[in-house]
Amino acid sequence: MNIGFIGFGEVGFEMSKGFYSQGKNLNLFVYDHLYKNIETKYRAEKVQAALFDEPLKVVQQELNILFVAVPASYSSEAWNSILPGLNKNTLCVDLSTASSETKQRICKELSNKDITFIDAAIMGPLKGNQHKVPMIVSGIGAKEFIKWGKTFEMNLSYVSELAGDATNIKFIRSIFTKGLSTLLFEVMEIADKLNLDDTILDSITKTIDKEPFENVINRLITGNVLHSERRIKEMDNVIDFMLNNHVEAEMTKATRNKLITITNSSIKEKFHGKAPLHWKEVMQKINET
Length: 289
Description:
The protein is α/β, with parallel strands linked by helices. It is built from 12 helices and 8 strands. It has helices spanning 10-21, 38-46, 55-59, 75-82, 100-111, 142-149, 165-193, 197-209, 213-244, 250-264, 267-270, 279-286, and strands at residues 2-6, 27-31, 50-52, 65-68, 91-94, 116-122, 135-138, 156-160.
């Protein structure tokens, strides 16, 4: 079994450690633009991988599977650099966070050469999980990749045959996960400054834990339909409060701005001033415009 990596940073190294630990008969071939770096050489030695100074040399190794694990901004460049050497017997998996449009374009270019492209989105922490990190996958070759991954007990979930769908799901989920983590940072920053952190933590915990999460979503989204206009003024006051305490209010300002957008959409009038029963009704109305 021959496995290749273009990009041997955290993603490539952690997954390689996982594959290597399986103890199966496999060969690892890797390239990273920092191939001269001591750390890169150490990583390659750690998993007994052949480290090359050119990406084309990796794809010339009769690979069963190739992972491209580079930063999003270098994804197109990486695929272009190896395209002349790819063959149709290799499953080609993009692990980057490039946009769905970029992945669809790359998929089309590879498909024109009868090469199988898979869009894979990493959905959990690599450390500890390594190659078994949860991933969602899409593209024509997604099911074949899942079948291959079972050999190494990979945690792969099928999304669709359309490259880019897995990335879209990851991006939408990131709005929540990254947004929530940053919002909590801002909340606890001002709470700690006023020695109210334990009180605020207790208050938020009681609010979130008192009912199932879908009920929380339903209550928060439908509540904005009727009350967005009033909440704009409240958030203006909160922004003044934070600035008076010398704490930047970026997330709070974003909340205020979104409430303005919701109010200007006239969503309240579409429900004739009555509270929607379910958040899905709200999304259907807002996306009609």
